[in-house]
Please model this.
Amino acid sequence: MSSSTLRSWRQQPALEGAAIEGAAVALPDAGSAGPSALERLLSRGRLRATLFMLGPAFVASIAYVDPGNFATNVQGGAQYGYLLLWVVLAANLIAMLIQYLSAKLGIATDNNLPETIRARWPRTLTWGMWVQAEIMAMSTDIAEFLGAAIGLNLLFHVPLLPAGLITGVIAFAILELQTRGFRRFELAITALLGLIFLGFLYETLRIGPSASGSLHGLIPGLNGTSSLYIAVGIVGATVMPHVIYLHSALTQGRMPCRNDHERRRVIRFERFDVIIALGLAGIVNMAMLAVAAKLFHTPALSGLSTIQQAHAQLGHLVGGTAALAFAVALLASGASSSSVGTYAGQVVMAGFINFRIPLMLRRALTMIPALTVIAVGMDPTNALVLSQVVLSFGIPLALIPLVVMTGRRAVMGRHVNRPITSIVAWACAIAISAMNVFLLYQQFFMS
Model:
């Protein structure tokens, strides 16, 4: 995808071919003399307006139920039962705040987070930010690519290396939707998120995790170094750095606004979008861990460590339909999140260093590390968990600049964070950083 195509996709007028119910509506640009884009949208009814404004958070939320979540939640549930359920809940609540701030930045400034950093911070620092963001993106892509390949392997018994190549083709097809407008891409990703949600809704209703065990798991607590390692992996799999950058790009220019009043209304819509989308992602993650705790936290299965083993045991203990639902959800998760991750990488590169490469070329290049992991025979599930721990260390590097920028009136104007919002966001950044430092200390000085 050329740079001009990428920018035109991101800045298309609201409701381009939107046809929430099929009819395209031509809306004037924000600077025209007639009714604004937002006014025209609202004139069609609040329900239709709300449905149209939903979308960016659903694209971002797919990263919160990617294959890394499958790996960390399955291992966490098998090894520690319901113990780490509170970590999943806390990570999703933190994610809601972070994604809301990122979306608000894009709406208030019409710039994404990497662009804002490049405009206001020294060039050397922005290049360093780009390098670390690319490392995080590679870790993300390995997890997502491997997950989709495993899903194909489980469903159709395709060997992992050919399955990886097929995953690349699927990701290319999803990315191609971006050339046809943001709405088609958003709806495709939302449909895949819905497929994942339905899969784990079925698993939960079919298996019936313990209500008392789940409630007890919401009480914060850990059980040694290994549980901390999984907890950090859960946080890394849930609050993903590349999506912090991406969400601001998904909202910038999506709905042209004439003034601060309209921006405030769009920000309210986006807050609702975040609550719905991240709420669904949180339910999926909690269901995933609870199902694993119910089935696998036994003396015989507590050592279960791979997604393939989880799939096999689901089929053995519950039945083929449950195993099928698990594999389909995994494939949908990997294919969709891989496409979203590729676009996030493009946003990071264009924003930090003002350089673009065709999106399809980037997809082809990012396939190489994951295919290498498969080719050398590394255990894919262990690679998934390790990648999520690496991601956790990248969260503060994206979160701290976000909190700084959204807390500056010079950047946000009237939409600057309230003091309590900044305090809570800083507390999240400090807590995640402290968890990472403590993990390093335990791994290298107490082992």
